[in-house]
Structures are given as structure tokens and as C-alpha cells.
Design a protein that fits this description.
Number of helices of chain A: 16
Radius of gyration of chain B: 30 Å
Helix content of chain A: 10-25%
Strand content of chain B: under 5%
Largest interface: A-B, 64 and 65 residues
Largest sheet of chain B: none
Structural class of chain B: mainly alpha
Largest sheet of chain A: 7 strands, mixed
Oligomer: heterodimer
Helix content of chain B: over 70%
Strand content of chain A: 15-25%
Order of helices and strands of chain B: HHHHHHHHHHH
Strand order of the largest sheet of chain A: 2-1-12-11-10-7-8
Distance between the termini of chain B: 52 Å
Shape of chain A: rod-shaped
Number of strands of chain A: 20
Structural class of chain A: alpha+beta
Chain lengths: ~550, ~300
């Protein structure tokens, strides 16, 4: 094997000269020892550092003889194949495998490595010593973070806002589309609209408008008539001023005390002489006495209750009825057709199905079993109808006319024709007899009617009067109102108070007269209820009894 | 007393932060919002505005710190305020949200903000602790000087090694090649340096080279060396080897110090690689948070 070795000798000023020699052998030895084919005069080279063997076809095997290896084409190798053009670096020398000239099997070029080149390579191969040199940057990550947040938090939701298909497609994905903007769960009442932001949120950057609310809440009354009460607080208040959603089931409906008291605590000072409303701030210590609707009737007979403060004395209930509660509730009981009965409140006073009010007292249901309206000992089962003066007269007229015609009425004061029983085949009464019978019947009916109204039946409970101008009858019964809504401005519900005894609020067993108003006043309620911030009693805000939306004016 | 970022001007900004936090907390406890506490109440908007202004001001620190001598206040004062007011932001933002969280951009902004703040806490720790450690580690020299000295020691070691044995020379050559000062993120943070292997290799080379010590024992490198030296007949060579061991040990100590120096510097900087990008991500999330709230007012 014949090697061509060409040494490059730099002579300064850029000029070079070459020294050429021939080496025989299969391998080319490289090292610092004197016997090496290529002598490297550098301590960084071992005495016998490496060998190069020809493999043929322009390929070579480069083998390091020391564990520190040899640098082939910039990489440290122990044993590798190389081709023409490959560079081997040992110490300060660079050995380049080149195309062998004619008559040679192999050729290398040996040159000293430039000092500046060594320095530059050391520089470039130096490992990074700071994070910045290690190629880690903050700028790119910062941009990625900034832009990705703007895309997730702004771009996609805005596109979804204008593009229903994207909105629907991303509806179920947390953090995606409109969900990225969702500030919290909707109230259960609004959950059906959870996927439809625009049901409430209209044009961008504008508040939720009342028009969106009244799409569903059309029948909700306003608080007060904005025309009559042009207060900024009322006229300019939006629905969303009080009703804030996206807070779960909390907060959508206000029931705090300030909701009312911030306006109502000093109404008389803010709008003097313009309001009938009293100042209210706290049920426990700043609430006026209750006012009740006392029964009263207008001149035309229509029911026209008068709202009266319970501070008024005397406080007389003019129900139109004579009814001593004490008599009915006495311990020894009351006498009834079925014997002695011990009555309780619920025998007459039963809550309406809704539970808010007490159902009206019904004579037929609650009273008639004892207070019978029979009128003739001979027919104890017959009773006159209740609550219809004219019907009583008609019924008795007809009853006694029938009795007179049939005869057989066992009454010594009656004429013979009435007392005689008619028999088959008997000739009909003469016109004289008929007139006599009818006259008796009318007289008997009038007498019975007068008896019923004046004392035995109606007068027991009712105030009965007689029209002096009337030729016949002319009985008048004063109108009656014994149950109904007493507190016009509040919502009291008996259902919420079933744990209480009736007597705790209504002292009926002591009441000898129906003029006693058995409706409780504020001190009664304050035994248990107090304002929102009370620590001992049941904290009750205005909304516990009063409604906000209770004007007669609808929202739109 | 030495003014650090924490006790700057007698803890001036600590007091500012405490007052701000106490004020926010008092308002939160006193406030009786409609429904539950949330960002939509007047206090929620107020705390949100304070928080947003604080975040923008804290972000401005990234610009302020580059403006040497062109801005009001000292950089140390700004950093002190940055740390304390940034910490108070945790409370202010939680009160702003009324502790409501969900899978949305609003909570994402909160989480990013907390990550930024807590990465900043590490930064405070790093700035207070590592400079002193670095100074002590460097022992009044510089990293460049240490690196230059290592190169010098390498060259000397090669010369000495050549005088002992070729296997010793090879061992030194390899150890020079394997000397790694610095490296990637992990190498910098873990202070990995392989200079410790140099002595091991040297031991191997020595045991290989010597036939005098047939019964060489495995064990401590130094013990082997001393054994070797004790059995050396040639005084000149044993002296050379002693000097070589001394050189390699010095190099090893130096390389460890350089690695530790790189590690301390990397630790002092690494948190910023979270702090800064996360704070920019927070800026994006905050922008989206604010705009979205008013988009759907």
C-alpha cells in the first residue's frame, strides 16, 4: 500500500508550500512518538494516538488507540469509517483524507490548525454557562401566553357571540366559546336560558335591558307608578339593579332589608306632604302599627272597608254580626240538637286551600246544625233559606197557600176551610172559602216571617230592621263580613304559623262581643319577629310580609 | 442598617400593603352585597379596579427596571413596592371575586396571577439568598478567571502526565475532553460536573501503569495513589505524579466551584422564565376578563 502524504507549511503572509512524502504500509499511524507516520508535535496527542486503514473504494477506517478518542469531522470517535474529504484532528494538526494522486492507493494532507481557528472553535464549542446562552428565552413564551389568552378569552367568545353555529358547537365545553365568559351559574329559574346568552345580553357593551326581562316577565307589576312617583330611585331603576344573576341560586331575588329601607326609612323627609306612607326601616324597632281593613259599607250597600290603624281607640269591628266567641268556646260546651258540643276554632275557621287566608264562614256549613231556621212546629224539618230576605217571604207565602188549599192544618186560630181535610168527591171550596183561606195564608206567612226576623231566628245573629213604610214584610238585614283579608299591604300566611295555637294571636275565648277585633297588632308579631339584624328573635326582612312588585302598573 | 428590598425605607411598602389589605378586608366584611359577595357589586368593581391598576403597575416594573436613571425613585424602592404590593394582590383579587371560581377566563386570570406571584416569591428568596452564596463560592475571583485557570491547569497536567506514563497521559487527555463547564438547563440547575472522574481515571491509569504494586487494592482513590507513591522507586517520577494529583485535585475543586456558580446564577434567573411569560399571559387573560365583563355587562 502506498500512501501519499502532503504537508502544508504556512510561511506567513498567506503563502504556503507543500512537502510531499510517500509512506508504505496498510495503516497510517498518527501520534507524538517519533516512529509515527504522521508526527504530531502536541501534548494533546498521545504517543500512538490513532491509525487510518484503507478499506478500498475511497473508504478508510479511522481507529483511536487511546480512550480519549480522535476527532473525525468534528466528532469524537473511537472507531469509525471515513471517506475522502473527511478531516481528522489530533492536537494541533488537521489530517485531511484526499483523493489519492495517480499511482497511490491513499492520500492525506497534514496541516497545522490555525491558532485563531482553535480559539474560535473553543469559543463555539464552549458549553452555555447561563440560561440565556442555553437558548431558553422568555420572549417567545410571553408572546405565546399573551396571544393564547387573548384567543381563548376574547377572540373565540366574540366569534361565538356573532356565530350561532360556533356557539352551539362549543356549548358543552368548559373554557371554550361563551363558556369562557360565564361568570357563574345561573339561578335555577333561568337555567333554561343557560345556553343562550343573548336571551338577556343584547348589544355588546350595554347593560342588560328591561326589555329582555319583560319578554318573560310581562305580567310582573312595577313597584309604584313612575308617573305618580317620579322619584329617580323608582323611575330609573332597572330590573338588573336588584336582580343579579350568575351567582347561583343566591342573589337573583333580593330579600334584604336595605332593598326597602334605603328609600322608605325617611320618605316623609324626602318628599314631605306628598306621601301617605310612613317611614319604615326595621320591623323590630322602626315599623308603624299595623293597619287593618275594618268592615264598612258604602251608602249604596257595597262593601267598602276602611283601612284603620290599630292604634285607634276604640277599635271596633263592625262585622254586622252578633257573635260572642266566648259563648261558643266555653269550657262546658254548647247545646246542640245532638247534645253538648265543645267547639274549637277549626270547627268554623279553616284555611283556604292556598293556606294564605281563612276560608269564609258559611252559615249552612258552620252554623245551621245548631241555629236552625225552621218556622212551624208542625213541619219541623222545613227551614227557610238563609241570606235571602225576599226568598224567605216567597217561600212562606207559597208554603201557607199550599197548606190553606190542602186543608187539614191543625190550628184553632185558622178558619174551618183550612182546618178541614179535603176528601175525594167533596165539592170544591166556594169562592168565599178560597178568599178566606188565602187571606189566612197571607196573614200566617206574614206573621211567621215577622217572627223569624224579629226574634227567634235572624235577630239572634243579625241586626234586623223593618222598613216602617212597608205595608208587608220590609225586613232588612245588615250586611255581614266576618272573614277576609285584614292586612291589605302584606301577605300573612297561616300555613307558616301552624305550629302556633290560635289563641296565641287571636284571644277569642275571652271575647264576649263580635265588636272585639281579634286581629293581632304589631306587638303580637314582635314577640317572635324582629328586623334583619336582630340577634335573638327571628330576623325578618320587609320581604317576609311585603311584596316589591305590587303596584297595579305593569312593567310595560 | 443595610437596606434590602424587604426593609427598604423601614418597610415602607410593607406598611402600604398591610394598610391596603386591611382596608380591602374591612370593606369586604362590612359590605353587605346583593346576594353573595361577587365581582359585580360596587365593592367588587372597586376592588377589581384596584387590582387591575396594581397588575398594570406591577407589569410596568419590567419596563421601569430597564430605565436606569431616567425614572423617579430608586430601582430598589420600586422592587420593594413591587414585592409587597404584588403580595397584597392575592387578598385583593380573592376579595374582588368573592371567592367565586369556575371554569372560565376570570378564574384563569386569577390562577395565572397567583402563579406569577408565587414564582415571584421564589425570586425574592433567590435575590436575598443566592448573591451571598455566589460571592462566597467565587472567593474573590471571577468565573472567567476560574475558567482560565482550569485551562492553565489542564495544560500543566498534560505536560506532567506525559512524563509519567502514556496511559496516565491518556487519562488526563480524556478528563480534559470530558470537562464540562455549563451545559443545558438541567446541567446548569443540577451543577453536574464530571471533573471528579479525573482522579478516578488517573487511579486506573496509575494502577495499570505500575507493576510494582501487584497487590493493588480497590478502594479510595487517594489510598491507591499513596500506595503507588510509596512503592515508587523512581523519586523523580513519584514527585511528578504527586504534582499531577495536586493539579487534578485543584482543577476538580475549581470546576466544582464554576458549576456551583453556574447553578446559583441559573437558580437566580430560572424563576423569571416563569414569572415574565406568565405575567404576559396574565395581561392577556386580564384584558379578556375585563373586556368580556363589559361586553356582557
Amino acid at each position: 500500500m502506498k500512501w501519499h502524504i502532503r504537508r502544508v507549511i504556512k510561511k506567513g503572509k498567506g503563502s504556503v508550500s507543500y512537502e510531499e512524502e510517500i509512506h508504505f504500509g496498510d495503516t497510517l499511524t498518527i501520534g507524538r512518538a517519533a516512529d509515527q507516520a504522521i508526527f504530531v508535535n502536541d501534548l494533546r496527542a498521545a504517543l500512538e494516538h490513532a491509525t487510518v486503514t484503507v478499506l478500498g473504494n475511497g473508504r478508510y477506517r479511522v481507529e483511536a488507540l487511546v480512550a480519549s478518542g480522535i476527532r473525525l469531522d468534528g466528532k469524537l470517535e473511537q472507531n469509525a469509517t471515513a471517506t475522502s474529504g473527511s478531516q481528522i484532528e489530533v492536537g494541533n494538526s488537521r489530517i485531511t483524507l484526499i483523493e489519492p494522486p495517480k499511482d497511490f492507493e491513499a492520500a492525506v494532507e497534514v496541516a497545522l490548525i490555525d491558532k485563531t481557528e482553535v480559539a474560535a472553535r473553543e469559543e463555539s464549542e464552549a458549553l452555555p454557562m447561563t440560561l440565556a446562552e442555553a437558548g431558553i428565552g422568555k420572549r417567545r413564551a410571553a408572546w405565546i401566553g399573551l396571544i393564547s389568552m387573548l384567543i381563548i378569552g376574547l377572540a373565540i367568545p366574540i366569534v361565538a357571540h356573532y356565530m350561532p353555529t360556533l356557539r352551539i358547537a362549543t356549548a358543552g365545553m368548559p373554557m371554550v366559546g361563551m363558556n369562557a365568559w360565564d361568570t357563574g351559574h345561573l339561578h335555577d329559574a333561568h337555567h333554561t336560558m343557560a345556553g343562550d346568552c343573548q336571551a338577556c345580553h343584547g348589544s355588546p357593551f350595554s347593560v342588560v335591558e328591561d326589555a329582555k326581562c319583560v319578554v318573560c316577565h310581562a305580567a310582573t307589576p312595577a313597584h309604584a307608578d313612575p308617573a305618580e312617583f317620579p322619584l329617580p330611585d323608582i323611575a330609573q331603576a332597572r330590573c338588573a339593579h336588584c336582580h343579579r344573576d350568575h351567582n347561583g341560586n343566591e342573589g337573583l331575588v333580593r330579600n334584604d332589608q336595605v332593598l326597602c329601607s334605603d328609600c322608605h326609612r325617611n320618605l316623609t323627609e324626602r318628599i314631605p306632604n306628598q306621601t301617605l306612607l310612613a317611614n319604615v326601616e326595621d320591623f323590630g324597632n322602626a315599623h308603624p302599627q299595623f293597619s287593618v281593613l275594618l268592615p264598612a259599607w258604602a251608602e249604596d250597600g257595597s262593601f267598602a272597608p276602611v283601612r284603620t290603624s290599630m292604634d285607634k281607640t276604640p277599635l271596633i269591628e263592625t262585622s254586622g254580626l252578633k257573635f260572642p266567641h266566648a259563648t261558643h268556646l266555653r269550657e262546658r260546651g254548647v247545646t246542640s240538637p245532638d247534645g253538648t258540643v265543645n267547639m274549637v276554632c277549626a270547627d268554623c275557621h279553616v284555611a283556604e286551600p292556598g293556606g294564605a287566608l281563612i276560608a269564609p264562614i258559611d252559615f249552612e256549613q258552620h252554623c245551621q246544625s245548631c241555629h236552625r231556621l225552621d218556622f212551624d212546629l208542625r213541619v219541623p224539618d222545613r227551614q227557610v233559606p238563609h241570606a235571602d230576605v225576599a226568598a224567605v217571604q216567597y217561600m212562606l207565602d207559597e208554603f201557607y197557600a199550599k197548606v190553606a188549599l190542602e186543608g187539614g192544618y191543625d190550628d184553632v186560630s185558622a178558619p174551618v176551610i183550612v182546618r178541614q181535610r179535603r176528601r175525594p168527591g167533596q165539592p170544591p171550596p166556594t169562592p168565599e172559602e178560597r178568599r178566606e183561606a188565602l187571606a189566612w195564608a197571607q196573614q200566617k206567612a206574614t206573621q211567621t216571617t215577622d217572627t223569624l226576623f224579629s226574634g227567634r231566628a235572624c235577630g239572634v245573629c243579625h241586626s234586623v230592621s223593618k222598613d216602617p213604610a212597608a205595608v208587608r214584610g220590609g225586613w232588612q238585614v245588615a250586611p255581614v263580613r266576618v272573614a277576609g283579608q285584614w292586612y291589605e299591604k302584606s301577605r300573612f300566611t297561616h300555613n307558616a304559623h301552624v305550629t302556633m295555637d290560635c289563641e296565641a294571636c287571636h284571644i277569642a275565648s275571652q271575647s264576649q262581643s263580635s265588636a272585639d277585633l281579634l286581629i293581632p297588632e304589631i306587638t303580637n308579631c314582635r314577640q317572635c319577629h324582629a328586623g334583619e339584624h336582630d340577634k335573638e328573635l327571628l330576623p325578618s326582612t320587609c320581604i317576609a310580609c311585603h311584596g316589591f312588585h305590587q303596584s297595579e302598573h305593569l312593567l310595560r | 442598617m443595610h437596606d434590602s428590598i424587604l426593609n427598604f425605607r423601614s418597610y415602607r411598602y410593607l406598611w402600604v400593603s398591610i394598610l391596603l389589605s386591611l382596608g380591602s378586608l374591612t370593606a369586604y366584611l362590612w359590605h353587605d352585597p346583593i346576594g353573595v359577595p361577587n365581582g359585580g357589586s360596587w365593592l367588587g368593581y372597586t376592588l377589581g379596579t384596584i387590582g387591575a391598576v396594581l397588575i398594570l403597575w406591577l407589569l410596568w416594573f419590567g419596563i421601569r427596571k430597564r430605565r436606569y436613571g431616567r425614572a423617579i425613585g430608586t430601582a430598589r424602592g420600586w422592587l420593594s413596592a413591587h414585592v409587597y404590593l404584588g403580595t397584597s394582590l392575592i387578598l385583593i383579587s380573592l376579595l374582588h371575586s368573592g371567592f367565586q371560581v369556575g371554569w372560565n377566563i376570570h378564574t384563569l386570570a386569577l390562577v395565572l396571577m397567583l402563579l406569577v406571584i408565587f414564582s415571584g416569591f421564589f425570586g425574592v428568596y433567590a435575590y436575598l439568598r443566592y448573591p451571598a452564596l455566589m460571592t462566597r463560592n467565587r472567593a474573590s475571583t471571577t468565573r472567567e478567571a476560574m475558567v482560565a485557570e482550569i485551562r492553565e491547569l489542564d495544560a500543566q497536567a498534560l505536560q506532567l502526565a506525559d512524563k509519567v506514563d502514556k496511559s496516565v497521559h491518556d487519562a488526563i487527555l480524556r478528563s480534559i475532553q470530558n470537562t464540562r463547564l455549563g451545559g443545558g438547563l438541567w446541567a446548569q440547575l443540577t451543577a453536574k460536573d464530571e471533573s471528579g472522574q479525573a482522579l478516578t481515571r488517573l487511579k486506573e491509569a496509575v494502577t495499570q501503569a505500575t507493576t510494582a504494586d501487584k497487590q493493588h487494592r480497590s478502594g479510595q482513590t487517594m489510598v491507591v495513589m499513596v500506595d503507588f507513591l510509596a512503592h515508587q522507586a523512581n523519586d523523580a517520577q513519584s514527585d511528578t505524579l504527586r504534582r499531577l494529583i495536586d493539579l487534578v485535585s485543584r482543577k476538580r475543586a475549581l470546576a466544582s466551584r464554576v458549576a456551583r456558580d453556574i447553578q446559583l446564577q441559573a437558580l437566580m434567573e430560572i424563576w423569571l422564565y416563569f414569572h415574565v411569560p406568565l405575567s404576559l399571559a396574565l395581561l392577556g387573560a386580564l384584558t379578556a376578563h375585563i373586556l368580556s365583563v363589559f361586553f356582557y355587562w
